Amino acid sequence: MSDPSQNTIQRAVSNGGAFPIPWGSAFPKRVSLLSSFDSSLAVNGNPFSVQSPFVARNPFIANDETEFVLDCSGRTAGSGAFREVVTSGSKSTTEHLSVGMGITVGCSFLSASVSGSYDRTVTGNSDYHKKSQHSHYRGPLINCAKLPDFTDDARALLQENPKEFRRRYGDYFVKAVQLGGESALMVSQSASTTTTVDAYSVTVTVKILFIKAKKTWSGQFISSLSDRTLSLTCFDTVTSSHVSHAVNAQSPEWVIADLAAMLEEYDDYASNLQGRVTDRLDQLLGKGWKEGMPISEAAVGELVKSGLVVELVLAPYETVRDFVEYKPRPVESEVALSLVLPAE
User: Has residue 341 been placed in a domain?
Assistant: First the structure.
């Protein structure tokens, strides 16, 4: 079992195979296929930290013969999912305060009394409605038809000083880029009303000998406070857009109208993600793209910047033929000696 204190990158590296990391147009544009990656620099699982683990150099021969191709037969190609969760609820509260008082003064022929009451009732009603949507679609991969060889300098460095090779080129490289899209939104609406009722009553009674008089004053005051809020948080990778905004009942009407229009727009984004990704691929690759179609390096760069690349697939150099061939191996005699000698 992997150590739960390890970050996501460390756990993936400990498995020894290729693994994907999320990508977006907001990340560094210089990263592309065959870019080097040093997993030890991925701090706290963030592959885009200030000290970037993406290394500027890679050990592969750079030439025009390197062929990138479209792979439409992968496990995730053509897969997608749409999920929507809606929750709503209401809450009512009531608070009541009642106070009474009475005072009486008098003598043998005169008496007076004052009595009074005060009541406050506060009632509150609140309702909320929340909706979240998440849509993702995975299209084809772009990878190398055949990995280029290491340069002579990289081979020599690997043979003579594997640690320096690791320092210069890292331990992973971008083997493929995953095309597709992600779209999500979360909208929250809430309404609340608080009503306060203040009621009072004061009665004064006066008695002089056999004459008695009584006077009562009473009144009631009602106040009400209402509020309504609408908050929206959403993103869409195909359009490289992100929105986080909130309005309330006091907001200008045009602001509320704009937010309602954004909600409708992003709702359409999530429900039509696959179609939008396909249309964008048609624009960049031409209609009729298919399995094994060659992709130029310039086209790969445009795709990386377009927002259609949602994941980078990282693979260890240990899986590359030149790495296996040129990495120094322990001398057989040294291995045998280490097995014979007793531990100190």
Answer: no
